[in-house]
Design goal:
With about 180 residues, this protein is mainly alpha-helical. About 55% of the residues lie in helices and about 5% in strands. The protein is built from six helices and three strands; from the N terminus they run αβαββαααα. Keywords: Coiled coil, Membrane, Plasmid, Transmembrane, Transmembrane helix.
Length: about 180
């Protein structure tokens, strides 16, 4: 099963590097033959670039292939090799571009801390939403009271009201 969303993150390279590192504990052990299928090479297989990806994958571990001489399902077989000849240098550089090893318990503690922070933010947002809803309900229940309160607490509105009052009193004096 190929999970397309994970393709290209070098997870397979990381896992294979771990396997190769483990296998190199027994340097004289014979590496089992790997057979490459024609299915990987047909046009359009796995977005059309699978052969190149597959070949590059094995090359970074020092695995070489001999092309099959007969027309069959197998297009190539790996050359005979011992575990001591496997390499991980190229693979290590490759997977480290995408993957960072972390201590599992440290990661869990960090995730717990982030979760608690987010829960605090959610609680704060819920309180803010409840407060805004209460204000909205109050405004809808008494719209004129709200308008008068807003007007009386607005310095610009009070200045305009004072200006109108002065203008009205001056106009009253001029008329009389």
């Amino acid at each position: 099963m190929i999970l397309n969303g994970l393709r290209g993150f070098r997870i397979g390279t990381y896992l294979m590097a771990e396997i190769v590192t483990w296998a190199r504990q027994w340097p004289l052990a014979e590496v089992m033959k790997i057979e490459l299928s024609w299915q990987d090479e047909k046009p359009g297989a796995h977005d059309g670039n699978n052969k190149v990806r597959r070949d590059r994958f094995y090359e970074q571990f020092g695995i070489e292939f001999i092309p099959s001489e007969t027309e069959s399902q197998i297009t190539a077989r790996s050359k005979y090799m011992l575990a001591e000849n496997l390499t991980t240098d190229d693979a290590e550089r490759a997977w480290r571009l995408n993957i960072q090893k972390v201590n599992a318990s440290d990661w869990l503690v960090d995730q717990q801390r982030k979760l608690e922070e987010q829960e605090g933010q959610i609680a704060k947002l819920k309180r803010k939403a409840a407060s805004l809803q209460t204000t909205k309900d109050r405004i809808e229940a008494h719209p004129y009271r709200y308008a008068v309160c807003r007007f009386l607490t607005n310095p610009l509105a009070l200045g305009c009201l004072a200006l109108v009052a002065v203008a009205f009193s001056l106009a009253k004096e001029v008329v009389s």
